[in-house]
Amino acid sequence: MRSPLLTKVLALALLASTVGTAAAKVPVTGRRQFNLIPDALMRQLGESSYKSTLADVKLSTGNENSQAIKSVGQAIAKAANQKSYDWEFKLIQENDTINAWCMPGGKIAVYTGLLPVVKNEAGLAFVMGHEVGHATAHHGAERLSQQLAVLGGMGALYLYLDNKSEMSNEQKAIVVAAMGAGAQVGVILPFSRLHEKEADVIGMMYMAKAGYPPGESVDVWDRMAQASGGSGVPAFLSTHPSEDKRQENLKDWMPQAKKRYERNKLSRNTQTTQWTSSDFGGSSGGGGRKNNDDSSSGSGGASSGGTRR
Ligand SMILES: [Zn+2]
Question: Is the pLDDT of residue 65 over 90?
């Protein structure tokens, strides 16, 4: 059985390979990557994953926390400067889930369980920037391209789709996941260490450009590690593997990030908002948010920026 989406995958991927669009450049780091998958296709996969994921969760809306996701998200979106993205920012009401993601095309979700870990707007800006970095660096498409290459390219995919495949179950799972058959590109499969470090750097640059102090990035990973000492590994770390050198890598890029921050820093203190785990301990919707900031700027984002819908 071949779905219309899968047929489109084949057609577009073949087209991409014949017109030679396989070499692309990653923003910020400038790394050259192998990418067979057209952006439009990844965005379509992202859209369908986004819709199917949101259908199964409870959203937290109309409160200060959901507003914070939106305003910080808009500031990061502005920094990422992706004209073709159709940004959306959702807060999912799951206090036990420490996670966040950004689908290709700019659909972002943050789980309420992440808020006590990021602790403040600057920490939130870093994690959202990191997620957006995975998307703008086309990590999902790159991973899919690599998997297709490993599997013998499109020939293997044809075989699989015709049910004549000798592929292992694991290989099939990779293709199905990557093809977005209800799957979550960039969510289910863990990113590589290279992709994690790259998303860290891009995220830190985005947060700095959006006016948030980049030093907070290092502290967020400290808190993430602490959170994993409790009841199991956070979902975030299972899809975003950690490593020892991660913070060193951030520190290597810190001088550049600080320069950007100095040019763009917000007039108000972005760390006065404090989310704590006690805010999210109960089953009450929304959770709490303490804000000592009496800034009159209104928006949590950088001035009037961000893509608005
Ligand atoms: Zn990541």
Answer: yes
- 213: its two tokens: 């102090």
What secondary structure does DSSP assign to 186-249, as a single string? TTSSPPPHHHHHHHHHHHHHHHHHTT--TTHHHHHHHHHHHHTTSSS--HHHHHS---TTHHHH
Is the pLDDT at 72 greater than 90, yes or no?
yes
Query: Nearest CA to 33 among 179, 129, 146?
Result: 146
Q: Cα of 134 to ligand 1 centre, how many Å?
A: 7
Gap from CA of 198 to ligand 1 centroid (Å): 9
Closest among 109, 253, 131, 125 to 191, alpha carbons compared: 131
Determine if the pTM surpasses 0.90.
Answer: no
pLDDT at residue 291 greater than cutoff 70: no
Query: Is the predicted pLDDT of residue 295 greater than 60, yes or no?
Result: no
Q: Where are the beta strands (DSSP E) in the chain?
A: 23-25, 32-34, 88-92, 100-103, 107-111
For residue 238, give the nearest of 196, 301, 287, 268 by alpha carbon: 196
**Exposed/middle/buried for 305, CB within 10 Å: 0-12, 13-18, 19+?**
middle
Geometric angle at alpha carbon 186, from 180 and 36, rounded to 5°:
70
Task: List active site positions.
Answer: 131
pLDDT in tens, 88-130: 999 999 998 888 999 889 999 999 999 999 999 999 999 999 9
- Average pLDDT value for residue range 225-230: 72
In angstroms, what is the span from residue 194 Cα to ligand 1's centroid? 10
